[in-house]
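Ticket #4471: structure export looks truncated?
Reporter: QA, pipeline team
Priority: medium

Steps to reproduce: submit the single chain below to the structure queue and open the exported record.
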Amino acid sequence: MKMTFYHLTGSARGRTQFIDADSVSFGTGDQCGITFDRAVDAAVYPLQAELTVENGYPIIRDRSGKRALLVNGLRQTEALLRDGDLLQFGEQGPQMRFRLSPNQASDTKSWRTIVEDSQDIVVRTPHTRYLSPLYLARHIFRDIVLHASPVVKTAAAIVLIAPLLLISWLGVVVHREHQAATVSERRMAELSSQLQTGRLTQAELEQRIERERQGAEALRRQQEGEIVTLMARLKVMEAARESTQDVRAIQQQLSAIRQSQSFAEDIVRRFGGSVGLLQGGYGFKERTTGRPLRYQGLDQLGNPYVDKDGNALVTLEGIAPRVLIYFAGTAFLVDRAGTVVTNRHMVHMWESFEPAKQAIAAGFEPDMVLLRLFFPGEEAPYLLTEVRVSDRVDIAVLRTDRVPAAGTPLVLATGMPIHVGEPVVMVSYPGTVDTLLARTSQSTSQAILAKAGGDPVRLVNEVAQKKLIRPLATQGHLSDVSPDLITYEAASASGSSGAPIFNRAGAVIGINHATLQRVEGVHMALPIRFVADLLNQPQQHNP
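Actual output as written to the record:
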């Protein structure tokens, strides 16, 4: 098979090699058909890779044993090559362009190939703006002399002026491409260091789950200790025949604790089926080209390759998985048609995430790839589409892709008065998947993690398959009420965004949307009238 290899970087930069054979090896060893200078190309192994033609198809295989072969920016152990593929030997090693040339005369290149190769190498060569045309002209002239067909050489000699003009124009284009590539690489490196993509190792997830499990156990022991202490005080006071007033005070405290537990449990039992776990994921694509931001490649465990600083290696090329930022929260059902409500920042996460805002400013635009909802007891998720979002407050209305199988729409307390000191219950998914797994046995959580790995989508799927998705209830009381904001005190964590706030009658009086900074356990909710107003607005037709 006739093949052409054009060296873009490394010790053989600018060299074209023609191979007419069914196999060729690459490396610094003398036995290799295509060799590299070991003093310059230190990243190349003595036998780096081997290309063989099998049933008419060129297949390249890594022979280093270190997965040090990259094809179009992706690490490969074996790959079917296509005309124009970019080969790289080692992470920082030399690059070359592979071409099939079955109909081309031996040791010759077409005019188009000469120009393309010359542009390719100049883009990868650091240079100043004014030297770009000279670099390009030098490479084109060299290739014409060494590898052009007689026809191309004659034409070049006859129309010398035209190629020179073309060279000057191409030089400007190449310089701009080089500048754009440099800026793009810098922007992607900055993104990689800033964006949290949600991909976690099993060990990291196990640590987070264990912390959640310890926290839940500590809270349970605290509540039990309070009851034991109050019971002991009550017995002592009764034995000492303390005043009726003091005894009644202790009894009221005990009653409050028990009522608190039963109140929250009753709300979850009655309405928890209508409160779902919302999961989403968004990526970025280049605004000018629409190319999505991708990982350069993933290792055998599904983790992205990283640089020396631990930042994921990203690119705009290739077919590797996209870089996605995952998030989770809460949404609740408000009608039988599948209308659900959550926070605006849950469906427009990039508006409140500083690294995402920086990415947008740098020429990328957000792209929502995943938005779905899991109701308790159901294995399959509901895909969500945006109906409308508020421009004034942190509320969004979504619609499920099908009518929910279970769950009763929550009642919105639009006409009910609310007062400071009134008990309330928030039903949500604090800590999201970590908390759900912490409520299971250690063997169950480890089995789920082992099956799903660090993939957030597969992880939630596995949790749903085990029917482990169920919300938590946190009781508190209103500490401040105004027409535009409700402040209440209750324990919560990340994942409570979009949660409904219930009054004692079981009606929703507000939607949780923020935590008061520097004050533990104090949260803010938007009055439910804002939700009612948004529901009554005309539907937006979003693409």
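Status: closed, not a bug. The export was complete when the record was re-opened. Leaving a note from the reviewer for reference: Residues 178-188, 192-202 have pLDDT under 50 and may be disordered.
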